[in-house]
Design goal:
Blueprint (H helix, E strand, L loop, with lengths): L3 H17 L10 E4 L1 H8 L4 H9 L10 H13 L5 H18 L5 E7 L15 E5 L2 H13 L4 H9 L9 E7 L7 E6 L10 E8 L3 H5 L5 E6 H5 L5 E5 L5 E5 L6 E5 L2 H4 L6 H18 L3 E7 L6 E8 L10 E9 L3 E8 L2 E9 L14 E4 L7 H4 L4 E4 L7 H9 L2 E4 L4 H4 L5 E6 L4 E6 L3 E8 L9 E6 L5 H4 L7 E5 H9 L3 H5 L7 H10 L6 H20 L4 E4 L5 H5 L4 H4 L13 H4 L5 H17 L5 E5 L5 H13 L11 E5 L2 H5 L1 H5 L4 E4 L1 H9 L17 H17 L2 E5 L1 H5 L1 H10 L3 E4 L4 H22 L1
Parallel strand pairs: 15-16, 16-17, 17-18, 22-23, 22-29, 23-24, 24-25, 25-26, 26-27, 27-28, 28-29
Antiparallel strand pairs: 1-4, 2-3, 2-4, 5-6, 5-11, 6-7, 7-8, 9-10, 11-12, 13-21, 14-18, 14-20, 15-19, 19-20
Helix pairs in contact: 3-4, 4-6, 16-19, 19-23, 30-31
Amino acid sequence: MEDSREVGGKNAALGELTRQLRHLDLLVPDGFAVTTDGYESFIGTGQARTSLSKVLNSLDTRSFSNLLFIAEKARRIVLECELPADLVGEIFQAYESLMHLHGSTIQVAVRSSAVEEDLTEASFAGRYDSFLNIRSKEELLLAIRKVYASLFNARAIKYRVQHGFTLENAQLSVGVQVMVRADLACSGVCFTVDPDSGFREVVVINGTWGLGENVVQGRVDPDEFHVFKTSLIAHKQAIIRRRMGTKALTMGYASNGMGVENRATPPSLRDSWILTDEEVLLLARWCVRIEQHFGKAMDIEWAKDGITGKLHILQARAETVHSKKNTSVLKEYTVTKDAPAICEGQAVGVGIVAGRARILHSLSEAYRFNEGDVLIADYTNPDWDGVLKKASAIITNHGGRTSHAAIVARETGAIAVVGARDAMRLIRDGEFVTVNCTEGKIGKVHKGVMEWKVKEHPLDKVASTHTKPMLIMANPDQAYDNSFYPCDGVGLMRLEFLMSRELKIHPMALAAFERVYHASDIMRINEITRGYKDKQTYFVDRMSQGIATIAAAFYPKPVIVRFSDFKSNEYASLIGGKTFEKDEENPMIGFRGAARYYNENYEPAFVLECKTIRYVRNTQGLTNVRVMIPFCRTVKELDKVLEIMSQNGLERGVMGLEVYMMVEVPSNVIQAEDFADRVDGFSIGTNDLTQLTLGIDRDSEQIADLYDESNTAVEWMIQRTISAAHNAGIKVGLCGQAPSDSAAFASYLVHLGIDTISFTQDAFMRGIQSIHQAESKIKSKHLIEI
C-alpha cells in the first residue's frame, strides 16, 4: 500500500493482496501496473499539459454550464497524444511476460487506478473507464489512452471539483490484468459490512452470470448471500440468508471477438444459484481475511473462471459510506397518514421522501429533472451522477443493493428502491409519490404524499437500566437496523408471522403435501417450492433464514423464538390451509398453541419447527436462540411438548438450550410453581392473559372498552407470576402491547421487580425512558427510607 502514490489505490491493493496474503491461497489475476510516472511522461509530451490546463481553467465551476464542452475538448487532447516510445516498449515487455506465463491468446482487462481513487474519504468508483477483452498490443495501447482520457470525462471532472481535487494535476495509473473467464461463469461484488445498515458482522455477496459490470451498473437483479462472520470463523454453516435474483442478462465476450456484449440469460440459469454453498463460504473467508489485513470494512470485486472453476479477487478497496456514518443517533420514523402502494423493490437507506416523480428513459431527458424530484429510470451508470445528486429518491426497474444507483444513493444520503421492475410502467410521470424505506429490506413507492414524523434518539445518552429492555420482532428485514437499539436482545420473535411472510404456505401442506387436494393449491405450492428437493427442505431453509438473520443481528444476546401460535382461522388463510383446518366457533380459545404440537393434525409440522431451530442452533452455531412454548393450558400438555422437542434434538439444557413458556392462561398462574419446575423462564403475554382473566374476546368491538390490562385482577395475575418465578429461581419477562402503550404500566412492572420487558420497535425508546424513570423513583424512595 505504500506504493499507492505510484500505482494508485486499486493497483496498490492488488499488489498488497498478491504479496501479503499469498499464504491464504487467495487468487488474484496476474498483471502489471503502468505507474503514474508513465502517465506523467505521456501527458508531459508536446503541449498536452499546457493545452489541458488552458481548457480546464475555463470551466464554470459554479454552475458547470460548459462542463460537457470542456470534457469533450480535454479528452480529445489526450486521445490525440501518442504514448512515448520508451513507455510503449516497457508496456510491450510486460505484456509479453504475461503472454509467456499465460499463453499468447490471453485477454486482458485495462482498468484505471487513480491516486485519489479508493480513499475512505471519497469514492471514485466508476468515475473512470475500464476496457475488457483486450486481445492485442494495438488494442492495449488504445485502451490505455482511453483510460487516460477518462480522467477528463464530465462526471470525473465534476466529482474532482466537488471534492477539492485539482483538475490538471490528477495522476493516474493503469492496471492491466489477465481476464478471468467470468463470461463463462459468474462474478460480482462483496461488502464486509451490510451496505445499508452498516451492520458489521456479515459479509454480503452479490453476483450474476457473466462479467460483473451488469451488477455494478444495475442492469440485472443479482443473487445475494449473507454470511455471518462469527459462524464462519467457527467453521459452521454461516450462510444465514440468500435471495435469488432474476439475472435476466449475461455479459460475455462480443461475437466479433472485440469487447463485450449482453445476451439474454437462459431460463435454466435464471433459476439457478450462481455459486455453491462451499464457494460462498470460501469467498466470505477471503473477504474476512482481507478486512482483517486492511483493518477496515472493504468493498471487494470477485469473479469465477468458467474454465478452471476457480474463484478470484479482482479488486479490494475501503468501503466509503459507513466509515463515515454516525451510528450514535437513531432516527425513528412514524407514518401518520398512509397512502396506497404503487410498486416495491429492494430498499436502500432508511427514510421517507415525497416528491414529484420524473421518468427518464435516457440522459437526453435530464433537462426535465429538477432538484428534489424522484428519479424513475430503468437503471443508471456513472454518467447519470449529475441527475442522481439532485434526486430526493431513486427508483430503478433493475439492479440490486450493490448497483450503481444504490451506491450513489448511499453516498449522497438519498434513499432508493432498486429492482422495482414495473416502476416505469406503474408510476405516472409528474405525479407526486412517497418513497418509504423504513420497513426493512422492502422499499415501497406510494401514490401521493403521505404524512410522517421523525424523532432522533442520541444513543450515547441512553441511560442503562437494571430491568432489561428487549425487542419484539417478526421481520428479519429489520434485524440489522434494529441491532443498533440499546436492547438486551429479542424477548419475542413470533414464528407464525415468519411463516406468513417467508413460507406463505400452511406448514402441514409442506409436511404432508400428498394430502393437499385443491388443484390450485397444489399448483401454487409446486411453483413456490420450485428448486427444492422436497417440501420439508423448503420449510427448514426459508424459516431458518429468517430466524438466523435475527439471531445473527443480536448475537450473542438472547433471541427468544416462540413456536407458532396462529389461530385456526389464520392458519386456514395460508396456501393449502383449508385442507388442514376446520372451522371453529371461537378460534381464540380453540385449537392453538401447545395443543397443536402433539396432535396428529399438526405434530408433523411442529417437528419441522423443531428441525429448523436445531439447524440454526447446531449447524449454524447461533446458540443464542432460545425457544418459547405459547398457550400451554396444563402441565401435562407441557410435558408432552417437551418430550416431542427432546425426540427431535431440542432437549432443555443440551448445548445450553433454554426453554421458556408463555404465561397467558389463568391456569399458568394458578399452577405457576409446577410449570416453573420444567422451564427456564416465563414470559407474560398480557393480551391473552387479560382476555381470559376478564372473559373478554379481545377481537370484539362491542365490549372493547372493558379490555384493560391494568384491571386489578390482571395485575394480581402478573404479580403472582413474577413472585412465583423468582421463588423458583427462574427469569420472568413480559411481552405484550400494554407496556408499549402505557408508561404507567411499564413503571408498574419495574416496581414488581420484573427481569425483562419487551417492546415493539416504535415504542422501544419510550419504554427505556419509562423503565429509567421508574427505577429512579425506586432508588430515590429507598434512599429516603434509609
